[in-house]
Amino acid sequence: MIKYLDMGSWFVALLTLVLFIAALFVKGLTHDLFLETGVFLVSVKIIAMSYKNGLELKALSEKTDRVLVALERIANKE
Questions:
Q1: Contact present, 9 and 47 (Cβ < 8 Å)
Q2: Which segments in the chain show pLDDT lower than 50?
Q3: How far is residue 57's CA from residue 1's CA, in Å, rounded to a whole number?
């Protein structure tokens, strides 16, 4: 998982977590906690989507490489 997330994603995740925990201590368990939780969950979702996109990109790249190899074999036979 580490190789699919860049330093910016890790920084955003850590900063969001720190701010969320700070908001818990500053605001306590009030209705504002729902807003803070929503912001935290949106950040986590974006980072999870980034991770999934990295996995899909790797799979797509491997498929493209296989297609290129097959096309080169076809071109060399002619």
A1: yes
A2: none
A3: 14
The reported pTM is 0.61
Q: Which amino acid is at 21?
A: I
Distances in whole angstroms, Cα of residue 60 to Cα of each of 2, 6, 30, 34, 36: 19, 19, 46, 38, 36
Structure-token match 């818990």, residue found: 24
What integer pLDDT is reported at residue 1 of this predicted model?
52
Tokens of 12: 């955003």
- pLDDT at res. 70: 93
Q: Two tokens at 14?
A: 């850590």
How far is the C-alpha of 64 from the C-alpha of 55, rounded, in Å?
14
The full set of domain ranges for the chain reads 2-77
Extract the tokens encoding 32.
């504002």
According to the model, what pLDDT value does residue 2 have?
Answer: 58
DSSP code for 5: S
